[in-house]
Specification:
The chain is about 45% helix and about 25% strand. By secondary structure, the chain is of the alpha+beta class.
Length: about 270
């Protein structure tokens, strides 16, 4: 049985990181081209004797450029599957600890190589983006990386709440209906939010349009966003110099930062 920490980490990978594949493929022309003739059900799973059905899984129904993501759902007969022998093995693999003990079973590699290879390339692209130690040089990759970070953090915080992380769930239970957002000035496509209300959370992509967010963590540009998101810049210094603007009370920014660091620590190890 996986520990609570391993279980929560796995939920972040399954339900916050893996759905980024859809975004990465859509925003990367070379990958988009490789999926043009793909009609496949992909699945990533981790065996666990205590899980319903004996494993945790997320699967994707892919028809060319159309991706439908099914989180927390097992597909009995996927065409391609990466099946890890345990939650711990999957977590270690996605943290870059790749070896005999963490490698998954690669189902469908022989039968559907034309489908398996594009999926593997997309996973490698995701790993290179989220595992980068230095900001990318070109603007399009910067834009994609910031977008992925925003989506990962908002979905990751929501997953921690939904799966009972005590500190996050306590915050959510006490919260009235509020929206917390991430944004970059002059980058309308690079934004995300999390809505919190009476114990429930929902992560969303793009700008929240129904009302003004209660709090927004807003960056001056993509480079400044990456400085904070990649942990290479000082948040207080950026705030003093208006490279990071907290649109809302500072204490709410501090709380959001704690949860951001929590998701980052679980995802990166």
């Amino acid at each position: 049985m996986a520990s609570q920490e391993e279980f929560l980490t796995n939920k972040i990978f399954m339900n916050a990181a893996l759905p980024l594949l859809k975004v990465i493929v859509a925003d990367t022309p070379s990958l988009q081209k490789k999926f043009r003739a793909v009609h496949c059900v992909y699945q990533v799973s981790a065996l666990d004797p205590d899980a319903p059905g004996g494993k945790y899984a997320t699967h994707f129904q892919v028809n060319c450029d159309e991706w439908v993501i099914h989180m927390n759902k097992i597909e009995p007969k996927p065409m391609v599957e990466l099946e890890f022998k345990s939650v711990e093995a999957m977590n270690a693999f996605f943290k870059g600890k790749i070896g005999p003990a963490t490698l998954p079973k690669m189902k469908g590699l022989v039968k559907y190589p034309e489908y398996f290879v594009p999926f593997l390339l997309a996973l490698l692209k995701m790993a290179s983006l989220l595992g980068a130690k230095e900001p990318p040089e070109d603007e399009e990759t910067k834009r994609l990386l910031v977008k992925c970070y925003f989506y990962l953090l908002t979905s990751g915080i929501s997953q921690l709440n939904k799966n009972g992380q005590e500190e996050v769930h306590d915050w959510a239970m006490k919260s009235p209906d509020r929206v917390y957002a991430f944004a970059v000035d002059n980058e309308p496509t690079v934004s995300a939010y999390i809505r919190v209300k009476a114990g429930k959370t929902r992560a969303g992509r793009g700008v929240y349009k129904r009302a003004m967010p209660f709090f927004t963590m807003r960056f001056d540009n993509l480079d400044d966003a990456l400085g904070i998101l990649m942990g290479t810049a000082d948040m207080l210094e950026y705030t003093r110099s208006s490279r990071l603007i907290m649109d809302g009370a500072p204490e709410f920014g501090a709380q959001l930062s704690v949860f951001m660091l929590m998701v980052g620590a679980m995802a990166q190890g």
